[in-house]
Design brief:
Blueprint lengths: L7 E8 L2 E17 L2 E12 L3 H4 L3 E9 L5 E10 L2 E11 L11 E3 L6 H9 L8 E7 L4 E17 L2 E14 L2 E2 L4 E7 L6 E8 L2 E11 L1
Parallel strand pairs: 6-7
Antiparallel strand pairs: 1-2, 1-14, 2-3, 3-4, 4-5, 5-6, 8-9, 9-10, 10-11, 10-12, 12-13, 13-14
């Protein structure tokens, strides 16, 4: 994998007409054994900032435990604190045909299924100079999708608060039951460095357009 334990990437988020709406941090806290699987632990945190925070006070955390050998998600957690309401959710993924190892309820998924955060890190593991497209099932805790990611530009100049980069532009389309989900589009720019660092992420969603730009990286 092109990342390491201890990596911390910090971003600022613009949304609709707000140039600064939130802060996001991606990190790799550890590699750990999870019920007999060797996993990467990925974490994402998101916090709205003023003036958006006066409208929507959001402090969310997402944790992904991704199999170090196969890239499959083993456990996905949402720790949500949104406008005073808190919600804790944990899903344990078990691919079809495998025996559950963790106690409690499990979600039966297709082999190779990622959670949304694990899917982002999986894109960094792809050699985009040799691979034009990847497809993978993604389960967000509620619905199963197919993510289709295709390279659109192999070397594009990108400038963000963290600096200037040459990056690969990856377009991501989301399908459900072989039909593209309307109103949802994602684009990720991965730096042409050894870590394939995501320097920009953009999304067109039903509630508005988001642009996430890297502020700093500790790699």
């Amino acid at each position: 994998m092109p990342f390491r334990v201890g990596e911390i990437l910090k971003y600022e988020v613009s949304w609709a007409s707000f140039t600064t709406a939130a802060s996001v941090e991606l990190s790799v806290p550890e590699r750990r054994d999870l019920y007999g699987w060797r996993t990467w632990h990925f974490r994402a945190t998101a916090h709205t900032v003023s003036p958006v925070r006066t409208l929507f006070a959001i402090d969310d955390q997402f944790d992904s435990y991704t199999d170090a050998a196969t890239g499959e998600s083993r456990q996905y957690e949402n720790h949500l604190d949104e406008m005073g309401r808190k919600l804790e959710q944990v899903w344990r993924f078990v691919p079809e045909g495998q025996t559950p190892r963790a106690p409690g309820a499990a979600v039966i998924v297709l082999p190779g299924t990622r959670d949304p955060l694990g899917a982002l890190y999986s894109l960094r593991a792809v050699d985009w100079q040799r691979t034009p497209e990847v497809r993978m099932p993604v389960y967000d805790g509620h619905d199963l999708y197919e993510m289709r990611a295709r390279i659109e530009a192999s070397s594009e100049a990108v400038e963000v608060p963290a600096g200037k980069f040459s990056a690969s532009r990856i377009a991501i389309h989301v399908f459900q039951r072989n039909k593209e989900v309307s109103g949802i589009d994602f684009t990720v720019w991965l730096a042409s460095d050894a870590a394939r660092t995501p320097v920009v992420m953009a999304a067109d969603l039903p509630f508005g357009s988001l642009r996430v730009e890297m502020q700093s990286a500790n790699q």
